[in-house]
Amino acid sequence: MENKPNNVFEKLDTLIVQNEEILDLLKNQKSNQNASAQSNVSENVLPKESVKNTSDDKQIISTFIKNSKKEHVWFGPISDFNKSKLIVYVLAVALIIVGVISTILTSIAFKMYSTFSLFENIWLVFAILMFTHSINAKKRIQDIDLMAHSNTIFNMNADGTWYDTNEEKKKYKWFRRISYIAVIANIIVIWVNSNGGLAVAATLFEIAFLGLTIGLNFAYTNLFCMYGNFIFFTGRNLSNTETVTLVFDSMQRKLTIYDELDNNMKKYL
To answer: Whole-angstrom Cα distance, residue 126 to residue 216?
Structure first.
């Protein structure tokens, strides 16, 4: 996933000028102000103290965003999203099956369970985790859930939003690289200790293991890199009479109201 600016507030003064309608919606200026007395306070309602102490428009948007539910959106048609998930499913399952068969064949050729196969099997555990990440992936997913089901490092920005640093976790990075070395080492030892059809079969499965590992890493990255361009902020307005959803376009540095987006754009969100 591509690194994004740390928070919405970097250019909030410009955003306010461009989004006066957002302020009207948050202030509920077009609604009955007495309606707030009839509403129950929810977890996403702005704290009363914050409302009372709000002195300018920037603080209104800032407080709303900090107290909102934050969701990352996979940008693209739902059909493309499902297709990307399916590719990860297929490659992950194929890698697990090939990894098991490869371990069996290599162990027979070695006449023992090798240390190199152990590293390959450790990588299979991470492949299973990546498989579960793809299962949990949603078109629109809360930031904390995306962070919990990803192989990259997330940090929290000034908005209170967890964002992807695009830095792969070290345990994934190093065990994947070690698995590459283990495959090469296994192939060498296979031909030192065995020959004939068994050696050929074991070698082919080792090569398949390597290819599927590379393919899975590419497909996984392709799936999760589509998050981060758009972030949804959902919460209640100042009078707690209406649920508001704002969309932040991190590429164009634009904050808009979701309901005002055209239908073609909504198909991608």
So the answer is: 11
CA distance 17 to 58: 10
pTM of this structure:
0.82
- C-alpha closest to that of 233 among 76, 78, 62: 62
Rg of the chain over Cα atoms, rounded to whole angstroms, equals 25
Separation of first and last alpha carbons in the chain? 17
Contact at 8 Å (CB) between 155 and 164?
no
Structure confidence by residue, pLDDT tens digits, 214-239: 999 999 999 999 998 899 999 988 88
Kindly report the CA angle at 226 between 82 and 157, in degrees rounded to 5? 130
> Are residues 164 and 154 in contact, defined by beta-carbon separation less than 8 angstroms?
yes
